[in-house]
Amino acid sequence: MSKRDYYEVLGVSKSASDQEIKSAYRKLAVKFHPDKNPGNNAAEESFKEAAEAYSVLSDAQKRAQFDHFGHTNGNFQSAGFDPSIFSEFGDIFGDLFGFGDVFGGTGRRRSAAQQGADLRYNLELSFMDAAFGLKTKIKIPRMENCQACTGSGASAGTTPSSCPTCSGHGQVRYQQGFFSISRSCSHCQGTGRIIRTPCKECRGEGRIQRERILDLKIPAGVDNGQRMRIQGEGEAGVHGGPPGDLDVVFFVKEHEFFERQQNNILCTVPISFAQAALGAEIIIPTLDSEEKLKIPEGTQTGKVFCLKGKGLSSPTGRGKGDQFVRVNVVTPTRLSRDQKKLLEQFSEISHIDNRPLEKKILQKVKDIFA
């Protein structure tokens, strides 16, 4: 009996991508798998036919030969069905049916030792603590190795024994039809070992819930949302596995005066009309001191000045940012009789009428069209 075209078997075109071929084979493997069709010889043959087609089309070199020669090539004509080809499909059948070792292939059995889980701790900081850094302590609830059994899960003086069902492999293999399948051992839950006398302290778990106090040194300049990773301070591993890590995530409170912009800080200070018009020297608060700032004559509201190196330190230690000072000219709302009189005299001397801005705007329009 002549063989069907491999592309026809999988129901894909000759230009199908590797992913399309793999996806098509997955669907057929699910449909015709012997576990879902016990005693159905036709389904078993379709399953083998799809597997053979996939073994050829999933290999670039074999696919090229098949595209050129078809089944007339001796390699395909005499190949027939070889159960060993299923050793290539461990990932597919593992995903579809939960098998660890399929058709004699290399399985992925669960290791008795497993790494502990990573943990996250949210730490709230004031603006100044984030700016200058600090040393602090935090309490971390986590699973730690049981001291009574040193993490083995077995009571003192005893040790876990090899699982008699799977001989310590964590998986058991059985024959079904023309292939063998390995599944996780239900007796030892895939660990490959049995604890006959569990530790009373941890009840055989090997770990126990405790609260760990850690000393933290937070560098200057950390920002909101940044994190510090501390290796080995997560939860203890299972059955002697390595511990996980701890991520400390920073949440920085806002400041009533300073505003952060990366490593720079911005602040707004009020100045009087007289200071803006005549110029002045004012005192500006910075993160760690006070600085004198010279306001030149005729300064307008919104003008920004820079204090070099008065910003935040970089957490990596690479320099400091700057402090930017925005001035806001404040118009007085309550004037004394003398103040009003002086301003009126100033207005008269300056030839200021009631429409100075309007005149300036009209003049600009005339200049444009001129």
Report what the structure shows:
This protein has 370 residues and is an alpha+beta fold. It has four domains: 6-102, Orthogonal Bundle (Helix Hairpins); 112-155 and 205-254, HSP40/DNAj peptide-binding domain, CATH 2.60.260; 267-331, HSP40/DNAj peptide-binding domain; 333-370, no CATH class. It is 26% helix and 26% strand. The protein has ten helices and 16 strands. The protein has helices at 6-10, 18-32, 41-57, 60-69, 74-77, 90-97, 127-132, 273-278, 337-349, 356-369, and strands spanning 101-102, 119-125, 134-145, 161-162, 171-176, 179-184, 193-194, 207-218, 227-230, 246-252, 259-261, 264-272, 280-285, 290-295, 304-307, 323-330. The chain has a four-stranded mixed sheet with strand order 11-12-16-15. β5 (171-176) and β6 (179-184) form a beta hairpin. The protein is elongated, with a radius of gyration of 39 Å.
Keywords:
single chain, 370 residues, alpha+beta, Helix Hairpins, HSP40/DNAj peptide-binding domain, 4 domains, four-stranded mixed β-sheet, three-stranded antiparallel β-sheet, 10 helices, elongated
**Biggest beta sheet attributes:** 4 strands, mixed
In the CATH classification, which architecture of the largest domain applies? Orthogonal Bundle
**CATH class descriptor of the largest domain:** Mainly Alpha
Chain-averaged pLDDT: 80
N-to-C order of helices and strands: HHHHHHEEHEEEEEEEEEEHEEEEHH
Strand content: 25-35%
Helix content: 25-40%
Through-space gap between termini: 96 Å
So how many helices? 10
Structural class call reads: alpha+beta
| Morphology call | elongated
Structural Rg: 39 Å
